[in-house]
Amino acid sequence: MRVIFFVLAMSWQMAASAQSFEQSHTAFTDVLNDHVEVYDDGLKSAVSYRDLAKNRRSLDKYLASLSAVEPGQYESWTHEQQLAFLINAYNAFTLQLIIDNIDKFESGDADSIRDLGGLFSSPWEKSFFTLLGEKRTLDWVEHEKIRVDFDEPRIHAALVCAAASCPKLRAEAFTGESLETQLEDQMITFLSDRDKNGIDDKDIYLSKIFDWYREDFDGLRDYLRTYSRPLSGDSGSSDNMNFQSLDIRFVDYNWKLNNLENR
Q1: Of the candidates 16, 163, 177, which has an alpha carbon nearest to the alpha carbon of residue 85?
Q2: Which end of the chain has less Cβ packing within 10 Å, N or C?
Q3: What does the angle CA 249 – CA 185 – CA 222 come to, to the nearest 5 degrees?
Q4: Residue 147 CA to chain centroid, in angstroms?
């Protein structure tokens, strides 16, 4: 009888814990709505880091809610809820990294996120936040968690590392309920941005992201063919386009901070 009671109590506790995290990520959406400006017909966005640094309480509260999630609680969620959680965590803690170092950007000591690393490490290797019970790095979230646990190449259009050449940072949080729609929209938007991706007379030109993570796309040309319309911008001719005849080249990556001043 005691065993049965214990099992029921543990089940109830896990269910209550799973429900305690706000899966709509409304707090993060509020932060993004207040500090992210979408422009260029919705293809790009910029962040008001200066204002966010001055009014960071809401972001800090959201970050604390992410850090409070225990591994068992995370494991009880759906596949979509887990991935939305990790994407939001990556983007939100990246915002924290920038505003924690806002003085360096204001003084000119830093021009991009890459300037925030240590002598022998990159900023993505800094253990500056807690997630799922341990101190973590941004690299851990992306390379050891998301890319290992999820076969989803569209995450490369959703993770934003505070650079001008990154995909746009959505002015809303990702949610498990809307994840499929949001990821598809991110990839279409990214490939529709002619400053980052497109097709000219001889080449398919792509963001370096497709070069760095080519292995995730399981046949890059075939993958791009499914997005021929946003990539070409020509709905009339894209369906018959011979992707095999076009060379692929990768454009230089602009690491400059994706803030309002640089847009």
Answers
A1: 177
A2: N
A3: 40
A4: 12
Phi, psi of 142 (to 5 degrees): -80, -55
Output the six-digit token pair for 80.
């979509």
Question: How would you label 167-201 residue by residue, b for 16+ Cβ within 10 Å and e otherwise?
Answer: bbbbbbbbbbeebeebbebbbebbbbbeebbbbee
What percent of the chain shows pLDDT beyond 70?
89
Give the per-residue pLDDT at 258: 96
| DSSP-derived secondary structure letter, 167 | P
What are 110's two structure tokens?
């830093």
- The model carries a pTM of 0.90
* The two three-digit tokens of residue 205, written as one number: 């030109």
pLDDT score recorded for residue 254: 97
Kind of pairing, strands 198-199 and 134-136? unpaired
CA atoms 83, 63, 99, 56: torsion sign: positive
How does pLDDT run across 197-246, given as a tens digit for each residue?
A: 999 878 999 999 999 999 999 899 999 999 999 998 865 455 555 677 78
pLDDT lower than 50: segments of the chain: 3, 5-18, 236
258 by Cβ neighbours in 10 Å (0-12 / 13-18 / 19+) ranks as buried
Cα separation of 137 and 126, whole Å? 5
Instruction: Identify residue 80 by its one-letter amino acid code.
Output: E
- Name beta bridge partners: 204: 199, 248
